[in-house]
Structure formats: structure tokens, C-alpha cells
Amino acid sequence: MAKPEEPKTEAIVKTEETPVEVTKPEKVYASDTERYIDIYKAIAQNEMELYNIPASITLAQGILESGSGNGRLSVKANNHFGIKCHGWTGAKIYHDDDKKGECFRKYRDAKYSFRDHSLFLKERKRYAGLFKLKQSDYKAWAKGLKAAGYATDRKYPQKLISLIERYKLYEYDKEVLGDAYKKIKAPEKQPATYVVAKGDTLYSISRRYNITVKELQNMNGLTGTTLSIGQELQVEPSSEN
User: Fold this and answer.
1) Mean pLDDT of 99-127
2) Residue 91 lies in a domain
């Protein structure tokens, strides 16, 4: 008796119902500051378009005030600019600053901190002078903030300027302003001068300014050593020399 044929079976290929998710590696930054700039540059530029505050200044202040996003106020309260309560009716956080346990504003998201920073400058009369400055003149803005009382640190302007130049934050101002951007040229340094007094000689003046007699003669077109009281001498090379 013939054996009955076994039913043929088709091979079943198992397939995944959903594709495997590919996880992109997180962007690697050289420093926390570069990461901070990459995250918040678009917000700073948007604030510049709306409120005419240079993006470079906003970013530099954010970096400085928040410790590149690592400070307690920025981590716990999304407060990137160290803005205190000043009649604030929203959420608050208490933090030691000039005094112990001072009241600072707390935000749901960091972007609201950037907006509040813009309004803080725009709506207070003491900062009105800033908005008369060119948006490309970040140095004037940095000095103006200190003059208006934004910070008590004497070196605050230099710190902002240093950050802007180190990380080329002025490029973000340039992107917003486009053809209207004009790079501010620093005024040429004027050479120092000295007015000859009684008893002065070329040698004594050269010693005073740490230059040689020959250099002093060359700068002033002198061939001899005779001087006159009241004569004005250039005692420092000009930038063109």
C-alpha cells in the first residue's frame, strides 16, 4: 500500500512588523559654550529681529550669566540672565547672589527667559540709550550695559567682548542685518606726545618712555639734540609706522 504524500509546506520568512529605529549619535561639541551657542543662537537672532538687541550681546550675556547653561538658576529655573523678581508675579526661585536668598524669576522654558531679557532692556528707561547704538557695535553695547547698571562687575564689558570675539558671535548679528551690517572700525590709536619742559633733554625723555634717542629723533624729524620749552614731541610710534 502506497504511503500517502505529506502535504507540502512553504517556508515562512519572519519579518519585523516595524522597522528598527536608527538612533543618530548626539552631536559632539568641543565645549559647553559651543553647545550653548548652537542651542540658543536661533532664539537670540529672533529676539534681535523683534527687539533690536544684538544677538551677539544676548548670547554673550547668556553664556556669562548662566555659566554656559550649567548654573543653578538656568538648570533649576531656566533663568539664563540672572533677572531678579522686581515685582514678578510668576514662579520664583531663591538664590544667593549679592545677598543671601535673593528672589529670581523662574520660567517654564528657557525661551521665555530670552524674551524676558529683551523686554527687561526694552521697557526700562535706563537702557534707552542702548537702542540708539548701531546693532553691529557690540563693543558699545557691552560698555553701555555696564554704564546703565546691568552688572556691578567692573570687567563686565571686557568679558562680553572677549566672548563675542572668541566665538565670533558677531556673525549672528551679520546674518540678521544682512546688507545693513557694517563692521565697526576701531579708531586708530593716536601716538602719545610729550611737551618739553625746562631741563628736559632728548636722553631724559627717551629714558622716560623707554625708547632710544635715535628713535625719538626719527619720530620727530630731528637731526640735532636742541629742544625748546613747550615743544611737542611724539614719543610713541604711530600705527602706520
Assistant:
1) 93
2) yes
